[in-house]
Write a structure and sequence with these properties.
The structure holds two protein chains of two kinds.
Chain A: E1 3-6, E2 20-23, H1 28-38, H2 40-46, E3 57-61, E4 64-66, E5 83-88
Parallel strand pairs in A: 1-5
Antiparallel strand pairs in A: 1-2, 3-4, 3-5
Chain B: E1 4-11, E2 14-21, E3 28-33, E4 42-45, E5 51-58, E6 62-68, E7 76-77, E8 94-100, E9 107-112, E10 115-119, E11 127-128, H1 130-133, E12 149-156, E13 159-165, E14 168-172, E15 180-181, E16 202-206, E17 215-219, E18 231-234, E19 242-243, E20 256-258, E21 266-268, E22 285-288, E23 296-298, E24 316-318, E25 326-329, E26 335-339, E27 344-349, E28 355-363
Antiparallel strand pairs in B: 1-2, 1-28, 2-3, 4-5, 5-6, 6-7, 8-9, 9-10, 10-11, 12-13, 13-14, 14-15, 16-17, 17-18, 18-19, 20-21, 21-22, 22-23, 24-25, 25-26, 26-27
Classes of the chains: A alpha+beta, B mainly beta.
């Protein structure tokens, strides 16, 4: 069962204006892999060319914040019932 | 057809485009494009149908490159941006310089961390230039306050001059294939060796096509114990440099620009080195009409006191009318125009976001 991935308004230009997409994934890392394959420009806005998640991006699984910039966060398991939300962190100036 | 003057103003909060007739009486402002996102480099490419480019340095989603084909009414993203190759280990942090190349669609781009990229299709695909990006010195360069940036690309026929902060001046004499550090006479005040082979904090380099071999440099000066290293000139394509700072109130500053019709006329904006603001709160541009032998203060129309702004390295430029005007933008969001060679200053815009870069172009 595919996992629902919700995207912020500011990134929807890169995925045909979809607020939510579905990706077959068993962990957070596979969500990123799926994004890279299906929406490379969207993926590049989330990860740099070394595949590190950009500093000001936040990941949530349901209501749980995932420290996605830490490599071991990618192994966080998910199921088809989970909702992964990609959000922009509160920072700026 | 009447000529239009187009000013591209890169700010902390996006790109603004101001348009005027040749009279420069009224400027219509539009923008911000790439709203809310800093623009560190802009380029008006008028070689064919004019295009405006602007880097859009998004702190959240990475770099974008914006392009407009209608003189800055609408912008879209190019199909790609410079990206380091897989396995390189570096990641694009900022786009600092954009220049045109020889071929109609050729562009050069200097980025942070200091590297050079080249596009042959107007910015839709990019290739890293290994001769400088993988230079044996590249992993020994250090970031300055603005990051490890390649901020200057100066083309001179088959020669290519690059300014890197902090890396120094690098010269290619084979069209950009190989590079050597060319910093003889370029000092540094922040390392034990006052004149290292490389690693200087070059702020900007400028040239004029009518003076082959001559270059002007604003280097990181302002060192009491190492005077005379801030404002420099070379007459041999950058292989040797000498000070032209005598007569200036400070040899610290960021921009250096050359008059579009006279290679002997050069402008700087001296700053107080500790605060990096106008000395004594009295802003002034300084002009030399003899290639740096002497300097004149130009401050008529500028604030007489309480002016503590900074003019960043790419925030000063000329238009290229027969009687050109000079422009500078400030970190306090003012855009100034200097008429009559800078003898008379006028504030065009008073409340823009902090200004990073300004480019002017006259388009038919």
């Amino acid at each position: 069962m595919a996992t629902r991935v919700q995207l912020p308004q500011t990134l929807r230009d890169y995925c045909r204006e979809q607020a939510q997409i579905e990706i077959d994934a068993t962990n957070v890392g596979e969500v990123l892999d799926g994004l890279k394959q299906r929406f490379p420009t969207l993926y590049r806005s989330i990860c740099d060319e070394t595949d590190r998640v950009r500093q000001h991006i936040s990941f949530f699984v349901n209501q749980e914040w995932i420290p996605i910039q830490m490599a071991n966060s990618r192994s966080r398991n998910i199921t088809g019932d989970d909702v992964v939300t990609i959000w922009t962190a509160v920072s700026g100036g | 057809m009447t000529a239009k003057l187009v000013l591209c103003i890169g700010t902390k909060k996006g790109l603004f485009v101001a348009e005027s007739s040749h009279k420069r009486k009224r400027f219509d402002l539009r923008g911000p494009f790439g709203p809310g996102v800093g623009v560190n480099a802009t380029l008006v490419d008028d070689r064919a149908s004019p295009k405006i480019y602007a880097s859009s340095c998004h702190p959240f989603f990475g770099m974008k490159l914006l392009v407009s084909s209608d003189l800055g009414h609408k912008f879209k993203e190019t199909k790609s941006v410079p990206l380091f190759p897989e396995g390189d280990g570096r990641a694009l942090a900022n786009i600092w310089s954009l220049e045109t190349g020889d071929n109609k669609k050729e562009l050069w781009c200097g980025v942070e961390p200091a590297s050079l990229f080249r596009s042959e299709d107007a910015g839709n695909t990019w290739e890293m230039v290994g001769g400088i990006s993988n230079h044996e010195h590249a992993r020994q360069w250090h970031p300055g306050n603005g990051g490890l940036c390649m901020h200057t690309i100066v083309r001179e026929g088959s020669r290519l001059h690059l300014g890197i902060s902090t890396g120094g001046h690098y010269l290619s004499e084979d069209g950009g294939t190989t590079f050597v550090a060319a910093n003889q006479g370029v000092g540094a005040g922040f390392v034990p060796d006052p004149f290292p082979e490389f690693g200087q904090c070059v702020h900007k380099i400028a040239r004029h096509s009518d003076a082959p071999g001559r270059l002007y440099m604003q280097n990181h000066g302002g060192w009491q114990d190492r005077p005379g290293i801030g404002v420099l000139r070379s007459d041999d394509h950058g292989k040797n440099w000498y000070s032209i700072a005598e007569g200036l109130p400070s040899d610290f500053g960021f921009p250096i620009v050359v008059h579009p019709h006279d290679p002997d006329v050069v402008y700087v904006v001296p700053l107080e080195p500790m605060t990096r603001t106008c000395p004594g709160g009295k802003p002034a541009v300084w002009r030399s009409i003899n290639g740096g032998k002497s300097w004149k203060k130009l401050a008529t129309g500028l604030p007489k006191h309480d002016g503590y702004f900074t003019v960043l390295r790419d925030a000063m430029t000329f238009d290229n009318f027969k009687k050109p005007a000079v422009y500078f933008g400030t970190t306090t969001g003012q855009l100034w125009v200097g008429h009559e060679g800078g003898e008379q200053w006028e504030c065009l815009f008073n409340s823009l976001p902090p200004i990073h870069c300004v480019k002017a172009s006259v388009l038919e």
